[in-house]
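ingest -> validate -> predict -> emit
validate: passed (alphabet ok, no gaps, 163 aa)
predict: started
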Amino acid sequence: MNYERDIRIDETALDIEWLEQPALFMKYSKHLAQMRKEVDEAKQNLDIKDAEVDRKIRETPEAYGIEGKVTEGAIKSAKLTEDEFQEAQKHYLEVKFEMDMAQGAVNAFSQRKDALENMVRLYGQQYFSGPRVPRDLTWERKEKQKRRDAGVASKITRKRHLV
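emit:
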């Protein structure tokens, strides 16, 4: 996914941009839904790790440097130093960040729709007027898709070379 590329509007091809807007919005909405699912799964995993580490600490508090009375504060402090808990927490925060970025992209595509509407109004008021030759929208749309596909293919090729 390339938010920056997909959000751009080609003001010389508003008709093509309008044709692509619903598909782009759906693409990023699906991505957001997937990220929400991943956040829920990461949160569930974090809660499980929290409970597992909590149980281990309560069973053998001396192994975690807790001597005497086992308090909730001591358990919480010991828990934060455990690698498995830290990894689960780090994963949760990373996935949550990705979800927030996906939400930002969906919001940006709503703004893109508003921008397209306003640009069409300007066009209707001949803001962009000048001599024009009728365009071949089918050809232009296919060319734009070819450029997108070529960009994806080059990224895949680069990844393969890096591995």
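The chain has a mean pLDDT of 90.
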